[in-house]
Design brief:
The protein has 162 residues and is of the alpha+beta class. It has a domain at 14-121: Alpha-Beta Complex (50s Ribosomal Protein L17, Chain: A), CATH 3.90.1030. The chain has helices spanning 14-31, 38-55, 60-70, 73-86, 121-126, 143-161; strands at residues 33-37, 95-103, 110-116. It is built from six helices and three strands; from the N terminus they run H-E-H-H-H-E-E-H-H.
Length: 162
């Protein structure tokens, strides 16, 4: 029975799964975006987000814990220098999984793109707040034209006095 065994084993033995997730996490940190299957992306999210959270506090202990998971000193350096600086104010949810809507040719598995949230420049440019669009009412005419009309006769009256 498999009661209370909730994570996806991905069809691999535990050592193979750990090595695969470690390599994928290193690739994600170094490249900021990877393309993989949906199942692997969901498993990787559970693996990499605690590592990013621990990188927010740059201590020797946290570096050693992250290195024990990643086994890649370049990825650890990148994580503690650049990634942790960008996600410092974010309370969680450091990764985004975008389903590509296509299947792999060999086995038909769904493909997805996984990326670090704060490193997608296209979406960051779109998220900037735009100026609020001025709304118009359909009912009555606004008060602005009436005020302009009221000012015009006064201006004409002042011209005639002079």
């Amino acid at each position: 029975m498999r009661h209370n065994k909730k994570f996806n084993h991905l069809g691999r033995k535990s050592a193979h799964r750990a090595a695969m997730l470690s390599n994928m996490a290193s690739s994600l940190i170094l490249n900021k975006r990877i393309v993989t299957t949906v199942a692997k992306a969901k498993a990787l999210r559970v693996y990499v987000e605690p590592l990013i959270t621990s990188s927010k506090e740059d201590t020797t202990s946290n570096r050693r814990l992250v290195f024990a998971s990643l086994q890649n000193k370049y990825a650890v350096t990148e994580l503690f220098r650049e990634v942790s600086a960008k996600v410092a104010n974010r309370p969680g949810g450091y990764t985004r999984i975008i389903k590509l809507g296509e299947t792999r040719l060999g086995d038909g598995s769904e493909m997805a793109m996984m990326e670090l949230v704060d490193f997608n420049e296209n979406l960051l440019n779109q998220e900037k707040p735009k100026a609020a669009k001025r709304t118009t009412r359909r009912g009555r005419k606004s008060a602005a034209p009436k005020a302009e009309q009221a000012e015009q006769p006064q201006a004409q009256a002042e011209e005639t006095k002079e």
